[in-house]
Amino acid sequence: MLLPFTPARSARRRRLLQVALLMCACAPAFGLEKVAVQLKWRHQFQFAGYYAAQDKGYYRDEGLEVTLLDALPDGDPVRSVLSGRAQYGTGNSSLLVYRARGEPVVVLATIFQHSAAALFVRRTPDGKALPLRNARMMLASGDDELQAYLLRQGVKPADLKLLPHSRRVDDLVEGKVDAMSGYITEVPYLLERAGARYDVLSPRAAGIDFYGDNLFTTEYELREHPERARAMRAATLRGWRYAMEHPEEIVDLIRARYPQGASREHLMYEARQTAKLMEQPLVEPGYSNPARWQAIANTYITLGMLPRSVPLEQFLYREQVPDSRWPLVAAGMLAALLGAAAIWRVRSARPGPLPAAVAPPAPAAPVAERALDAACEGVWEWHPQSDEVRLSPRVGELLGYGAGGFAPADRDAWLQHVHPDDRMHLVHEMSRIGSDPVDDTLLVHECRMRCRDGGFRWTVLRGRVTERSGALPLLASGTIGPVSDRAVAERERLSGVLEAMPGGILIADRAGRVKQVNRAAAACFGYQPGDMAGLSMELLVPEVMRSAPGLPRELFSRPNLPGRVLTARRADGAHFPAMVHLAPIEMAGQGLSVVSVRDMTQRQRTEQALHVSSERYRLIVQTATEGIWMLEAGDRTSFVNPTMARMLGYEPDEMLGRPMSDFLDEDSVAQLTRQNQRRRPGEAEQGDARFYRKDGSSMWGWCRRRRSTPTTARTRARWR
Fold first, then answer.
1. Assigned domain for 338 exists
2. Which domain holds residue 664?
3. Distance of alpha carbon 440 from the chain centroid
4. How would residue 589 be classed by pLDDT, with cut points 50, 70 and 90?
5. Higher-confidence residue: 686 or 67?
6. Spatial separation of the C-alpha atoms in residues 516 and 522, rounded to whole Å
7. How many CA atoms lie within 13 A of 32 on its CB side?
8. For this UniProt entry, which residues form the secretion signal (predicted)?
9. Other CB atoms within 10 A of residue 632 CB
């Protein structure tokens, strides 16, 4: 039955439609799952990725409403998560210890590739280092790497006067304690501002390199809410990527949310140090290496902090990747059914034999052979288990042989026809595809092959493993073709350019394997130029990435890598610092990376010597019995040592930026002005001057002044 149309019914329908649309729009908000993250410390840049994920809506995009819980006094984030107060937390490598005790904690993602924990030890007023034994020390709970460091240095807990951690840097500055634990991301900033003299003792210097902040949860959360855990991890890592790319924005966000916290300068300092600990931009946020976790466990075990066996299988989160084969299987079955239906329809519509005009298709093999011949390509086959090699007659023709004249029986015989400078690279490539049980990447390699007349011809090999028995490669096959004269000329020009460069240059593919290297780079690494072709660029990556499969490939597939000092490894196994730059190029349709390498050993030694010299000069100036005063252009005070400030009754900071004339009587100002006008840079003058102290009293001092070069316009004065 049809109801008649009326305006009232139309208005009612519009209202129902509006309500329905409103409910649809609000559905995502109503469906947000509420979770809490327990932070291990107060709000600061240490948790920048979580703030970014909140502010940018990354958590909401994943269907989550996340609350960040500030650390409680003497609180333990692990206990907070285990008790159910929070579903997720931030913790350090001590999560291993909890796991060994039977606590069901699981690491979802590693944020800091290196722990920020360090030991800060004050120096005596005369600049001497304090011994650790019998030191008054504040250690926080969970400072496992520092305890391991002390044990490795032969310092036991009984050798220390351990005090509760006050979290106040002033206690170290004021001498209430001799040493305290803290984060390298902020404590140096505070100590420098306080003018303290101190030493930093890092566990990494003793070979104890633990992971830093980790996002963790429990087995219960993973079992009951696996999708929520996946979403939490994905949104958090997305937030960290944003925070590392926009640190100034996140610093301003932290300041706006928590105005009672650190200053902007303080947070920017923390951001710069955090990027170093996260190995940005080299290492993707969230990455961790099971082998390195095992090394951390071994350190705990060696120092008696863990039992002998700590299984890691359930400790490290592995995202469950859905099986992507069933859509392909379903598509194949559907295609087969559709094909069968089409054939049935054709046959039912046209019974009887096919007309003579419809010829059957040619067999696939002859068609492929004709196509390869037309492209001047030969075919090769290699059986890795027997080393047997088979080459098509076309390969011999490319090298000037007659039919059957070029038929090496095995790989070694084949390699004898490869140019010596290209041979090692091809050996590495074939060994890779012949031994890796899962690597199905395409082999693409250019090399020179000896022709029948004794000359060499550039060829390009392409292929991959085509048959396996389980994980065992049985057959690799592909094609061999000539490289065009233009490509050969481009390669020769490139080689000439590389050799003309004074610095070390390598060319690597996106899988991180060396394609070409100049003599300067080979000498830098202690190789002969021909021996480096085919080597993995893992020799350039930091320790944290060397044992991680796939990471060199990820590193060298990045579009750019700005200059950065990494740890490199020579042919004899020695390590050295290297400045590395990466830039992408395209050659013959292949994506490559140009790697510039510079040995920084001598430069670091020079910088270290300058630092030691500068530190010695600073100590001499700070402890001098004479007053020392430095002026910048405009007669502004840039530095006074404590003795000078003490003579006039000021703190050094009170005198900075003020002109010297503020502290002199008029006659002394006039005298010093006349001397300054007639004195040339480098010359020294001396004389008496009358100063006014902070309390209004005056004093006479003997002054010796020397003016630096006009470019620095700096004046140094000594007073007695």
1. no
2. 624-719
3. 27
4. low
5. 67
6. 10
7. 15
8. 1-31
9. 14
Same structural domain, 47 and 109? yes
Alpha carbon distance 381, 579 (integer Å): 42
For residues 359-367, give the mean pLDDT. 47
List pLDDT tens digits, range 115-170: 999 999 999 888 888 889 999 999 987 788 898 889 888 898 899 999 988 888 99
Q: Any idea which residue has 């084949």 for tokens? A: 414
Flag whether 317 is in a domain: no
In a domain, 608, yes or no: no
Averaged pLDDT for residues 229-256: 94
Provide the 8-state DSSP code for 308: S
> CA 466, CA 392: separation in Å to the nearest integer?
17
- The reply to whether 710 and 585 lie within a common domain is no
Q: What is the DSSP letter of 243?
A: H
Examine the domain organization and report whether 442 and 390 are in the same domain: yes
Indicate the residue among 431, 457, 483 that finishes a domain.
483
Hey, what amino acid is at 263?
A: S
- Both tokens of residue 390? 């088979």
Say if CB 153 and CB 206 are below 8 A apart. yes
Residues 582 and 594 sit within 8 Å (Cβ to Cβ): yes
Cα–Cα distance measured from residue 85 to residue 80, given in angstroms and rounded to the nearest whole number: 5
Checking DSSP bridges between strand 378-383 and strand 179-183, what pairing results, if any? unpaired
Same domain as 551, residue 635: no
Predicted local distance difference test score (pLDDT) of residue 269: 92
Chain position carrying tokens 């020079």: 606
Provide the domain count of the chain: 5
Do 122 and 98 fall within a single domain? no
Q: Binning pLDDT at 50, 70 and 90, where does residue 485 land?
A: low
Query: Residue 48 in contact with residue 240, Cβ under 8 Å?
Result: yes
Q: Are residues 412 and 546 in the same domain?
A: no
The verdict on residue 351 lying in a domain is no
Contact 57, 6 (CB under 8 A): no
Whole-angstrom Cα Rg for the chain: 36
pLDDT beyond 80 at 585: no
Same domain, 94 and 222: yes
Q: How many CB atoms lie within 10 A of CB 129?
A: 12
| pLDDT 10s digits, 444-483 | 778 889 998 888 888 888 888 888 877 678 888 888 888 7
* Closest to 89 (Cα-Cα) out of 36, 144, 140: 36
558 plus 452 within the same structural domain: no
Arithmetic mean of pLDDT, 409-427: 85
Residue 28, phi-psi category: left (phi > 0), alpha (psi -120 to 50), beta (remainder): alpha
Question: Whole-model pTM?
Answer: 0.48
| DSSP character at residue 132 | S
293, containing H or E segment: helix 290-302
Cα–Cα distance for residue pair 521/580, rounded to 1 Å: 11
Rounded Cα–Cα distance for residues 194 and 190 (Å): 6
